[in-house]
Each structure stands twice: as structure tokens, then as C-alpha cells.
Specification:
Aspartate Aminotransferase, domain 2, Aspartate Aminotransferase, domain 1, 14% strand, 3-stranded antiparallel β-sheet, 12 strands, 13 helices, globular, binds pyridoxal-5'-phosphate, alpha/beta, single chain
Length: 378
């Protein structure tokens, strides 16, 4: 008998799954504007809440996460059974897909949108249906409605959209949800809802709470809507991994079945609770990020780049054939952004210093062009 060494075959459905690419890491001293993180270090109250729990990390966390789930349920006036937590909302997106879709089913989303969607769908054995954004880099809701088939099980609406920063307004979204058959789950991914000051709120009352975006109102009014929120972006807890979903009871129950047990640590739960206690401080920080985002947009436009007005904590520059040039300029100026070759660059809104750097980096090109022009006329 031959004893040739052979590795067991991997699941063939993984052949179509691209490896998840993290935002490029930045060399020491560079501005890391590649992952839409908060430029602010954690709040002292959050650090101290985490420190208080360090002495019990030999214990498993409470799987039901009663404190944070109780707080969220009370905040939104929903039954705690409808709230689930996960290791970042990306885990909840995976849970929702697994809860409703499998082999032969379709999961729809706009493209370009959140890079994790295609992989998560493929891993579940389902087929991603990617509907191009419109000419203004917004969701094309009519095209999405037209793409629904009897195999469609779930539709993501990323709002504001990553990486374009555009939003679907509350009224448009309401019309869309009402037109989607009720056996299709509409998942409204509001990772960036806190940064949106525009069209996204259903009424004046909801606009006073940065999280009460259209998603929750639609969840209340329709039986086939779920909402995803995360503590990673506006709350600055990206490194701790905690997000939550609010979903219809049967869907939430299915999510709990597919969840990886003990995926959300006690430290993350404590940090999330402490963050809910620090809303006012966080609101100030969010306001600062919004100021820098708008400044970033202005700086790009002034330098001649086709930046898209954003309602998130980043700005999309659909630079097309000039993408490599923009990437190079930013890199040379000590700024690391997220580049999609041939398509564009997404730059996160960092601190004032970070945006100063972007401004200086872009100015280098004007000088470069001026040099070339001088040479040409000499
Ligand atoms: C960052 C992001 C998330 C979630 O990130 P987590 O850190 O996993 O909570 C979800 N959706 C979109 C669109 C994002 O950009």
C-alpha cells in the first residue's frame, strides 16, 4: 500500500470566497485612514469599565449578554428577545444570512458596498446578487426590486453605504421595503448611521437620537426588516468586537442557533454598556469626525478630485484611472487609505491633523503638475 501524503480536500464552495483583506496597516507615524476607525482613543470611563472586569477573564462571558441586551431593548422599546449581539456586526450579518439562506438561495446587495457581504454569502452556500449603484453612487432601489426572484431570501441595504457614503432617504427606503415580498428579509446595515445628519430620520423626534435612523422605524412597521448596528465605528470599540441586531422573533431565534457560542467577551459587553452611559461625550466626538469629514470632502474637491458628499465617517473618491495616482500621492504624504484599484479610494475621516496631511499630500500633485507645466513651457 502506498503511503502518499494527502491533505483532505477543502469545501469546494470556498473556492469562490476571496480572502478578506483588512485595510492596509500603516507604517509608524502615518495616518491610518483605511478602516473607518475612530481617530479618538477609548474614553477613560470605557477603559475603566474594561479594567474592572479583567480579574474575571478566567470565566466564560454570559452568553445571553443580559445587561447590554437589556439596555438596548429598553432604549429602543423592543422585546429583549429581538436583540442579539455578536463579535462585531459582521458576525451578525453572517448569522442573518445563515438564518434564512442556504444552497441555491440568493442574497442581494448593491455593489460596490461592504466588502464582507460577497464572502459571507458564499460561505453560507448562497449566491450573491450584486446590483450596481446608480451614477450618483447610490443604491438603485428600482433595479434591486427588479432583480428579486423566487430564490431571493435576503437583501442588504447598507445605509449610509460603505464605501460611497451615500444614503437612501427614509421615504425611499419605506417604499422599497413595502415593495419587497414579505418572505424576503431586508437587512438595513446602519454601521454609519451616527454620522448622518441628513435625510435619514423619519421625524424630528428620531433626529435627536443619532441611532434612531429609518431602520428601526421600518423594523417597527414591517415584519420582514432587521437592523444592524455596531459599536466599532462611532463608539470607537472596533478592537473589542461587539455589534447588535434587532430582528423579528423567529429570525433572532435562528440567529442564536447559528451563533458561535461565547463569541462576545465580557470585556466587550462591559465596554458597550459604559459607552451607552457616555452618549454625551461620544456625541461631541462624532461631531468632530463629521467636521473633519466635510473638511476632507472640501479639500479633495478643491484639489480637483471627484469626491462624493458623504453621510458616513469616510469620503469616497471614484478616481477611476487616476486611482493609482491618488493612492501614490496619499502614500507619499504619510496617509494610508483604502484603495480599490481602477475604481477609487476611500479615505476615513480622521483627526484634524490627519486631514492636514491629506491636504498637504494632495498639494504635492499641484506642485508636480506646475513643475511639468513650467518644463513644458520652458
Ligand atoms: C465596519 C462595518 C460593519 C461592522 O463592523 P464590525 O466591526 O464587525 O461591527 C458592518 N457593516 C459595514 C457596512 C461596515 O462598514
Amino acid at each position: 500500500m502506498t503511503t502518499q501524503r494527502q491533505t483532505p480536500p477543502t469545501n469546494p464552495r470556498l473556492d469562490a470566497v476571496p480572502a478578506y483583506k483588512q485595510g492596509r496597516s500603516a507604517p509608524a507615524g502615518a495616518s491610518k485612514l483605511s478602516s473607518n476607525e475612530s481617530p479618538h482613543p477609548p474614553l477613560p470611563s470605557v477603559v475603566s469599565a474594561i479594567a474592572d472586569r479583567l480579574g474575571s477573564i478566567h470565566r466564560y462571558p454570559q452568553m445571553a449578554a443580559p445587561e447590554i441586551i437589556g439596555r438596548l431593548a429598553a432604549r429602543y422599546g423592543v422585546d429583549p428577545a429581538l436583540v442579539t449581539v455578536g463579535a462585531g456586526s459582521v458576525e451578525l450579518a453572517a448569522q442573518l444570512i445563515h438564518a434564512v439562506a442556504g444552497e441555491g438561495d440568493e442574497v442581494m446587495f448593491a455593489w460596490r458596498s461592504f466588502e464582507a457581504y460577497p464572502s459571507l454569502v458564499r460561505i453560507a452556500g448562497a449566491t450573491p446578487v450584486m446590483v450596481p449603484l446608480d451614477a450618483e453612487h447610490r443604491h438603485d432601489l428600482d433595479a434591486m426590486l427588479a432583480a428579486i426572484t423566487d430564490r431571493t431570501r435576503l437583501i442588504f441595504v447598507c445605509n449610509p453605504n460603505n464605501p460611497t457614503g451615500t444614503v437612501v432617504g427614509a421615504a425611499e427606503l419605506e417604499r422599497f421595503v413595502a415593495a419587497v415580498p414579505q418572505d424576503v428579509l431586508v437587512v438595513i446595515d446602519e454601521a454609519y448611521v451616527h454620522f448622518d445628519g441628513s435625510t435619514y430620520f423619519v421625524d424630528a423626534a428620531s433626529a435627536t437620537d443619532p441611532e434612531r435612523g429609518a431602520g428601526l422605524e421600518l423594523f417597527r412597521r414591517h415584519p420582514h426588516v432587521a437592523v444592524l448596528h455596531t459599536f466599532s465605528k462611532a463608539y470607537g470599540l472596533a478592537g473589542l468586537r461587539i455589534g447588535y441586531a434587532i430582528a423579528p422573533a423567529a429570525i433572532a431565534e435562528a440567529q442564536r442557533k447559528v451563533a458561535v457560542p461565547f463569541g462576545v467577551t465580557d470585556l466587550a459587553q462591559a465596554a458597550a454598556v459604559a459607552s451607552l452611559d457616555a452618549q454625551d461625550e461620544l456625541a461631541v466626538r462624532i461631531g468632530e469626525v463629521v467636521v473633519q469629514r466635510d473638511r476632507l470632502h472640501g479639500v479633495l474637491v478643491a484639489a480637483g478630485w471627484p469626491a462624493v458628499a458623504s453621510e458616513a465617517n469616510f469620503v469616497w473618491v471614484p478616481a477611476a484611472e487616476r486611482t493609482a495616482l491618488l493612492d501614490e500621492l496619499l502614500h507619499a504624504g504619510g496617509v494610508v487609505a483604502r484603495t480599490f484599484p481602477g475604481e477609487g479610494v476611500r479615505i476615513s475621516a480622521g483627526s484634524a491633523l490627519d486631514i492636514d496631511r491629506v491636504e498637504a499630500a494632495l498639494a504635492a500633485q499641484t506642485i508636480l503638475t506646475a513643475d511639468v507645466r513650467e518644463e513644458a513651457t520652458a
